[in-house]
Each structure stands twice: as structure tokens, then as C-alpha cells.
Amino acid sequence: MYKKNILYLHGLGGRGDDYIGKELKKYLAFTKLYCPTLHPSSNIAINSVSSLLKKDWDLIITFSFGSLLLKENWSEEIATPVIFINPLFEQTSYVNFFKYIPNFTTTPTSLYKIKKIDRDFFRNCISKNVAFSNKYLIYSNQDEVSDYSHLKKSELNIFKEVFALNEKHNIKDLSVIKSLVKRIL
Length: 185
Description:
Layout: E1 5-9, H1 19-27, E2 32-34, H2 42-52, E3 59-63, H3 65-72, E4 82-85, H4 91-95, H5 108-111, H6 119-127, E5 132-140, H7 153-156, E6 159-165, H8 175-184
Parallel strand pairs: 1-2, 1-3, 3-4, 4-5, 5-6
């Protein structure tokens, strides 16, 4: 039987074999899950993601900063379903996060140049009537890195489904992802 190919893009300072990567492999053993460790320099990581997106994926899962890396390579041709887990919506979220990242080689000022997933991104999707018919959002309502309370219903409505978890940024219970992936694939 053909196993579906899934790409997981980890968060800032993370690794492909971090807690979420390991948990995804456990929960999604029925798939071929590719969890590369991306370079800590955002520019090199962006190029790596660009190369990765040239392959055929049945699903892409992003966590935190991984969402920004996908957004930096975003095109309307990305028809692949995407699950965004705790994406960073505001620059201040990750600028304050640097002190937790060992050996991080990008300065906060260079990150300001990255096209971030922010409210303008969602507003543009809404104004262009771009429906994320196969894009999903999972966010933590107790997230200490990003505040999702500012999102408006119209911004959330562009997603096919939205899940709010009672978790911190580094979510521990990924069971919702397993059932969601089974429905998507």
C-alpha cells in the first residue's frame, strides 16, 4: 500500500527530531513523514524549504517559525493541504523569543525583512477571496509566544477548520493532529 508523504517544518531553533517531530512520527506511523532539521539561519532555511517544496507532498505540517518559512515560499499554486500549528502571526512574538535559541545566527533586524504570516497576510487572502479550502489552523490559547486573541472571525474563516487547544506554545497532546491527518488523507 502506498504511504502518503508528509513534510514537517519545525519551529525556530528546533530540529526535525524534536518532541513534536517524534510525536508526529508516532501518531502518523501510517505515513512517510519527512522531518528535516533546518539550518538555524533563516535565509538558508528559506532556501531549503524552497527546494523541499519542489517535491510532491500529500500534506505539509508546520509548527511556529516553520509557518513563516512556508509563507516565505508561498505561492497560490500550493495546492497541498497544510496544517499550521501555532504559527507566528506577529513579529514581536519571535523577536522576544531569541533569548531561548542557542546558536541562532539570524539577528532580529534581519528577521524584520521576512514576509511574516501576520494579519495583513490573512486580510489579503480575504480581500482576494482566497479560500484556504485545504488549510487548517491549530493554535494554543495559552500560548506564551503568540497571542491569538486578536484574530477576527473573518480571518479564521478562511481556514477549512480551526482548533483551539488549552496548551502552551510547545503543545504536548498531538492527538487532534492524528485524527485530522486521517480525514485529510
